[in-house]
Amino acid sequence: MKTAIFYGSTTGVTQDIAERVGKFLNADIFSASDIEKICDYDFAILATSTWGMGDLQDEWIDALDKLKTLNITSKKIGFIGVGDQEGFGDTFVDGIGIIYDEIKDKGITLVGKTSTDGYSFSSSRAAEDGEFIGLVIDENNQSNLTDERINAWVAKVK
């Protein structure tokens, strides 16, 4: 299956996580600004951090507008959310939730939900019924769990 990861990264953390996941999946890695390339892939992973009080990362603002115009019907889509559950527990990884809300009715197949167990947050647009819509990483507070979470998620989506 031809796989790509599209990421938006301000500080480099999301890019690092995308590259680490990409190595395991033999995925091509692109900035979110190259989102039109999604049409060339069977499985696309959309990776972003969340900024401010639940705002989408800057690169994803224009990319999401482009993505909404593309034919992604029947695409397998996974998400990677990077956030800070202690500092921003009321908007934890909202970025992936924002993207998902905009494309969920476009005929995609969501791949890679994960449990919210082990995280401490009060609200997230990326969580519903005890599951996140994708891989969630908190490098600020739980970096010791990052490798384990990446490995488990990659095994799940392969």
What this model shows, in words?
The chain is α/β, with parallel strands linked by helices and 158 residues long. The chain has one domain (3-157): 3-Layer(aba) Sandwich (Rossmann fold). Helix content is 28%, strand content 25%. It contains 4 helices and 10 strands. Strands 1, 2, 3, 4, 5, 6 and 10 form a 7-stranded mixed beta sheet that branches. Strands 7-9-8 form a 3-stranded antiparallel beta sheet, with no helix packed on it. The longest helix is centred in the first third of the chain and has 13 residues, at 13-25. The protein is globular. The termini are close together. The mean pLDDT is 97.
Series of H and E elements = EHEEEHEHEEEEEH
When the domains are counted, the total is 1
Q: Give the distance, in angstroms, between the N- and C-terminal Cα atoms.
A: 9 Å
The level of helicity is 25-40%
Number of helices: 4
Mean of residue pLDDT? 97
Specify the CATH architecture: 3-Layer(aba) Sandwich
- Rg on CA atoms, Å: 14 Å
CATH superfamily: Flavodoxin domain
Structural class: alpha/beta
Describe the main β-sheet briefly: 7 strands, mixed
Low-confidence stretches: none
CATH topology: Rossmann fold
The count of β-strands is 10
Please give the CATH class.
Answer: Alpha Beta
The multimeric state of the shown protein is single chain
